[in-house]
Structures are given as C-alpha cells and as structure tokens.
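Hi R.,

Here's the chain you asked about this morning:
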Amino acid sequence: MAGSKVAAAGGTPEVVDLPPIVNKAMRTASAKRRVLRPPQVRGANRAAVLQLLRHNEHMSRADIARQSGLSEGTVSRIMTGLIADVLVREHGEENSTGGRPGRRLQLDSRRVAFGADIQNWETRVAVSNMRGRIVESRCFRTPSAVEETLDLIADAFFEYRKKFGSQRVPGLGVCARGIVNSEAGIVVLGSRADWIDVHLREILEARVSEPVYVENNVRGAALAEYNYGSPDVYGARCFVFVKVDEGVGMGILIEGRLHAGPRMAAGEFGQMVIAMAPGRERHDRPGCLERLASDPALCGRYAALAGARRSASSGGTSARVRRIVQAAVDGDEAALASLRETARCLGVGISNVVWGLDADVVVIDGAMTGAWHAIEAAIREQLPEESSLAGIQVLLRPSTLGGEAALIGAATLPFTTVFATGVSRRTGGAAA
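And here is the predicted structure, written out as tokens:
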C-alpha cells in the first residue's frame, strides 16, 4: 500500500498509510504537472524542428517528419510559422525521385544574436547567426576596471543593434573566466583580482535594457562545440570539452545539458593532482594538472630544453605556444619533446575524467592542438583501452571551431530560449 514517512514520537521515521483521497490528490497533481497544454506542445514541436535544423545544413519537410516522428501536415504548419518568424527559410529544391521535389529548409541566416567573450587581456565582441557562424566581430584590450569593460561591451551592443535592427534576437550573451553563477548572472570569482562578486547581468541589463545571459567561458565554449562543432560530437551521452590556455578548464554536458554543479564550479579539473609533489598548498598545488599541462607549463618545458636563446620568450603565453607549435611543425626536436610531454600530462588528467564520468567524447581546444599530429598519440595512450570500458572507444578530437568556441558560445546564448521553447521575440518585444 502507498505510504509516507513521518516522525514517530521517538523521532524514528515510520511508514503510515495516507488516506485514499490524499493519495488521489497527489497523483492528480503530479499528472497535471506532466501534462502539456496545447501551446506548450506547439512550442515543444517547434523547438524539436529547430534543433534538427541546427544540426543539419538543410532538410526537406519529409526528412523532418521522418526524423521527428511528426506528421508531414504538422511539419508544414510548423514551417509556416517558423518562416513567418524569420527563423527558417526555404532554399532550393531536393533532388527529385520521381514525384514533386521538396523544398530544402534551413535556419534563416538573417537572424543574428550578439555576445561578448571577456578574457584577461582582450575582450571580443561578435554577431553570430543561428548556425553559430560569426557574421562580424572585433576586439579591444580589456580595461583594468570592471565598469569600463562593461561600458565598452554596451557601446558595441548599441552599434550592432542599430546595424542589424529587426532581424536581431533580443538580448546579449556574455562569457567570462572564473567561477560564474550563470543562474544569477554573477562572476563570483574571476581570474583577475577586481573581478570578484561582479553582478554582471544586473549591471549590463541596466545599461542595455534587454535580457543578458551570462556563462563561464569554458562552459559557453562547450555548448558551442556540442551544438555547432563536428556532427559526430552531437548526441554524446557524456561530452567533455577541455580548454587549455593559462590554465586547464573543462565543460561537461550530460545528455546534452550543461553540468555546472551546486556551486557553479564543476569542471575545475585544472586543480586535479596527477603527480605528488612536496608542499602544503590546497590550491594550484605543484603536481596539479594546471601546473603540468597548461600553456605556461609548455613554455617552461620548451625554455628548459631549447635554452634561453631559442625559448620564444617574447610576447604573451598564447603567442609563445603558437611559435612552439610552428617550430614543432618545422621539425624542431625541443618543440616536439615539450609538446609531447605536456600532452602526456594532459592525457593523464583526461583519463581520470573519462574514468570518473564515463565520458564518450572529449574535445580539446587550445593553441597546442595546432600540432595535433604530434600530441594525439601522447594523449590517447593515457586513455582507457577499449576492453576496459566494455568495448566503447572514447572519441578524441581537437576543436573544430578554430579557437572561436567561447566567442560563439557567448554570441549564441540569446538563441538558447529560441531552441529550447521554439518561441522567438522580435526586438519590439512581441512574441512571434
């Protein structure tokens, strides 16, 4: 019989039967929560169609009906609305197999969204279309003051808003480094001293008077790679995106949903200790992944192997890594050795993540992937063998977004609601 735990006199839970009328009311309330109303059903169907088109360059109505399970009549009605909302457009005809050729459908490239990726040294702003392709972008040196940085982002937003007008999806997406509470829109702990407890959403919404979407830069990049990267990545049960730059961060998607953790700090695997070393530190310990596999670690190894004269010490860390990569491509043994040792350490850390999360896809983004031919084997040799994971091989690949993953992630954040609900708002605010 159905029952519920309540505290007995002595404090020990016991099971008691609820009155039938209460059980019935509970079941009815639960059922009501699960039932979708007609507008919700229409929105869910529109969202399903949009997501199919996001992951296919173009499709016919018959293709969409076959893959979605919707009837062709329902698909046609949905398409009429999506085309009117400037979310989908017809483009050319399918090859005929004897009958009337179907019209090819694709996401409307005229619909765009705006975003900004805030890095320590520079901030990049961009406009992206619905397929995650950058239409326009520019960058500026990140000011030392938080307020000045956000003022420059707002200024760029106003310029793009004026230029792209009514075809623009309302809102502004922003990605930032550090621990970011995306639900509250707050940079809790940034990677610079002044970026602490920055109420980024509140500040920017007051400036631009539109919705602001905030995300950690690695999580935003992970979303972009999953949704707009290589087709064989989409659909992974457990997808891990690894970003290597000044540190090592990871974005995790489980069943297509970002996993941020209760404190929005999931993915800080750079702090994972993979080599015991003396010291009492509990943060940035000598044997942690960040100390052994980041860009500064690679530059340090190359300097030690090549000597000061050939250490490529001028310029920022990313620029130095690119020069090391080019040296490796040209056959420099010191560059090759330093890259392989850094990749080996990275592989050890990734292996632990694969074991812990049962990840089936791992994508790596960073300047060092420019020498993928030199580092792939060193990373893969550390991963579990097929036989140890029930014959399932982990898909390992470099990012396909050319270093733009975080920027694309930021610029496509305003599309999140569109793809989740199937509903778009025009810049005037009316629901489409």
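One quick note: The CA atoms of residues 343 and 379 lie 5 Å apart.

Cheers,
M.
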